Amino acid sequence: MSSILDSDIKFLPGIGPKRAELLASELNIRTFREMLYFFPFRYLDRTRIYSISEIDPEMSHIQLRGKIVRINLSGDKGRKKRLIATLADATGVIDLVFFQGIKWIKDKIKINNEYIVFGKPTVFNQTINLVHPEIDPANDDNSLYSGNMIGIYSSTERLKEAGFTNKQVAKLQALLMKMAGEYIYETLPSYITQAKKLLPLRSSLKLIHFPTNQTLLNQARYRLKMEELLYLQLSLLRQKNLREGYTRGFIMPRVGDYFNACFKNIPFELTNAQKRVIKEIRADMISGKQMNRLLQGDVGSGKTMVAVLCALLAADNGFQSCIMAPTEVLANQHYKGATKTIEGSGIKIAILTGNTKASERDKILDELSQGKIHILFGTHALLEDRVVFKNLGLAVIDEQHRFGVDQRARLWTKSEEFPHILVMTATPIPRTLAMTLYGDLDISVIDELPPGRKPVKTIHASENQRMRIFEFMKEQIKSGRQVFVVYPLIKESEKMDYKNLQDGYEQIVKYFPAPEYITAVVHGQQRNEDKAYDMSLFSEGKANILVSTSVIEVGVDVPNASVMVIESAERFGLSQLHQLRGRVGRGTENSYCILMTGYKMSKESRQRIDLLCSTQDGFELAEADLRMRGPGDLEGTQQSGLAMELHISDLAKDSQILEEARKIATSVLTEDPYLENEKNRILKEVLSTLKKEERDYSKIS
Ligand code: ADP
Ligand code: MG
After folding, report:
1. 299 lines ligand 1 (CB under 6 A)
2. Which of ligand 1's atoms lies nearest the C-alpha of 271?
3. Residue 547 near residue 521 (C-beta atoms within 8 A)
């Protein structure tokens, strides 16, 4: 189905090859269609003309109509030049102030002519004026700007330099609509558009660029969002159906000696949530279908034990397992933890990371391929080609958002048939979002923490309280506890960050001198041996303080630690802070999280910090995070492999439409799984053109 909409954007009059390249590199726009689907991200309401007497400084942008009655150029001799044009309507006068482009404005504005002016009221010298408003002759028929809602398109410096002003983009859209509008065909079956009272595609696209009023704009948006989310859900559900249709899963019915022997070693009672989740997983493991399950559980909820127990079940049925973690520190911790659990059971485990010595590695690989190792722990070193299992039956991926989609997919190639897959995350994802990001996964949730955990008291502090914080740390250390001090590490400012950490470390060593106090330090620039050494000092209780970058964010478990100090907390995201806080409060003692910030903070940072001080519920925080930041920023979502690009829907805000779309998609596919019905022909056609869908998402979790 090729159409004029697939034409190269360079053929649009006014673009040409050079600017086409720019559009491609800056905005990913290559065709007419892609241009058409480049939507405004907000709108200015210019449907209404205000009277000057109505203006109050709280208003956002307003539109006025009036005559210029005076023009005044001022500011010679060192003072900043400015031009003041006074606009009058029947109700009053207001000054329009320009500091730049003065010559251009002077040529353009004539006294006694009528203009439409658009700008934001500001107060200066106790009077209201408009600084740098847009100004157009009132009788300009060519103006796209009169009497409508004006779409505002996102732009970049380079685009602006090349002349892609907002007006220009709007003009191109208008032209495009004129040239290609009649080739925009409906993409939803009429039985759906009718049932849901959706506007036709063509008018929706026209309205999204050139809305005539808010109501119609809302309807257009609704239609476009519904379409987008419906196709997203259709493609996810179809993948799921497909996968379930063609993959068989290993069947693991036995609960045997390995499981039972290890189970006896566990020093605590499993929580009900853990038991329930293990049942859910076991049901998959005996179903004959390949498991693809996401396990969500707040930090400290005990996901690792669930994973290990499932691996033991696999072993009882003659299968190997692997448990992959995103960092070496974490992989080590899993491995050490499991060592205790398997004691005396006959289970053989091993760990493989990028730092495993060659001789050791060869031995492991050898035993692995012979099936002598039951459970292999490790980092992404597990993904290398030379890592060959005899019969991999279960692959567990911890903190899955840390792995790229393609990395994860490689695990599938480790087995003749797809192994059962369990991915675990401590980043609680609200249901609607999970449904979309992991639409073809089943979801289990551990919604209960082990008993006896006390809430972590969370405190916001700034630099002038540092000495009090240090004193407090001393008290805690005196009573036998340990303290984390964490510094942010952002790629862009990596050098500065390491310097901050180094300075912080020195300050701490000064204040907490050896041998009375032992301070360990862990960060990315260390040699791996040093890292492992310092980490073990802390985890074995030999160091009182651990200074580190956020490498410890994921999963490190030191129950004796009772204080988490987070430096420059304003630079961390909400879920990151929550994860870090989850490192303490694992024992039965009182524990504390201290958020150190600078004095200056953005409104958002303050919101984050306040929220964190007020609640410890991971799901509540995740919802708030999503609202504040949008899902694009949510950790891991960029690489989660959304089946298609979203132009207009916002997964954080459109959860209702998403639910509706899910319902429609489910009922469509239940009735017509292969979309063979004539009434679904459009759905099938459009689905087949969704580019990214061609990737095999059944292989990606
Ligand atoms: P996460 O879900 O964040 O990965 P972990 O698996 O690291 O959590 O578990 C956190 C701590 O809780 C570990 O020390 C673990 O041994 C302990 N733990 C797990 N399950 C229970 C339980 N049912 N009762 C008590 N402690 C538990
Ligand atoms: Mg964990």
Report:
1. yes
2. 23
3. yes
